[in-house]
């Protein structure tokens, strides 16, 4: 099953860092947060990634182009014209497809543009700026059990975001703006989707969290995987520093790999 990562936005709320690079390339522990997310999926055996690039896409492409070099011991022999010998390759067994989904394309449009790379298969989708310690295998099993078009991981956090109305059968019925008294769950990404979802996306101007998911909710085709563990996005410099502190402490909850 392929994993699609949204990594094309401008990251304006963390402009201290994102003016130099795409937000998913901002580093935690010396590695882009995008790498941390991929390591999560890889831990559960999912190694085929499609990355939706946009803003400063060349940074992402160049990082992956040099990935094996940066993670290996190498010798450059300039007596032989600069011949490079790779001694140890510590790269992960990843297949990474980097797709230019446009500079100003909305999230739905980015998903639509990678349809040729997904084909007629179930796939996973998440945001390139949030980490979680959810069990991916359990998430996929839950999605397969209900047979609906879409599963979204939902978490309960402080109310900075719009919230989800979820009924007693874990079906998401509507999206709405947060209220001060809310304790409702929010969209944490980590979705599992059937290819039918592409039919609900009109084009580049479609916001994935609006018409496509709202239509699924109206049809009763959007299920919530309610998760009570760790989840943290990186929208601000303060959140970046929080993640860095967790990583440096050796107690990063999302680090499921050795």
TrEMBL record:
Gene Ontology molecular function, alphabetical: glucose-1-phosphate cytidylyltransferase activity
Pfam family, one: NTP_transferase
Residues spanning the membrane: none
Origin superkingdom: Bacteria
Keyword Membrane set for record: no
Keyword flag Transmembrane helix: no
Segments forming domain Nucleotidyl transferase: 2-202
Keywords: Nucleotidyltransferase, Transferase
Record InterPro entries: G1P_cyt_trans, G1P_cyt_trans-like, NTP_transferase_dom, Nucleotide-diphossugar_trans
E.C. designation(s): 2.7.7.33
NCBIfam families the record matches: G1P_cyt_trans
Descriptive protein name: Glucose-1-phosphate cytidylyltransferase
Gene coding for it: rfbF
